[in-house]
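Hi, here's the filled form for the chain we discussed.

Project: internal
Contact: R.S.
Residues: 97
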Amino acid sequence: MKAENVGENIVERQEKTDVETSQSLSGIGGVEVRISVEWGRADMTVEEASALSEESLIHTDRSVTDPVDVLVNGKLFARGKLVLVGDSYGVQLLEVV
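And the returned structure, exactly as it came back:
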């Protein structure tokens, strides 16, 4: 099988899967879910946490270039990167897990 035929077959299967998925989800399309983005975590004592103020900095376990976790109802759904959208931040999905 030629490489271009393989690519066409993959696209056809993906399109079929997308249609099947959208049809199977059509009945629950209006259900609300909570999406949260976790950029990093930090461990501290109760004493350290109670000493935090408006100008405090919290050092997390991730660097600025690490991907963020996108959680749907508390479960890992995807990873992405923070992007600036006008005056707000958004997340560009890089990988759906």
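Let me know if anything looks off before we file it.
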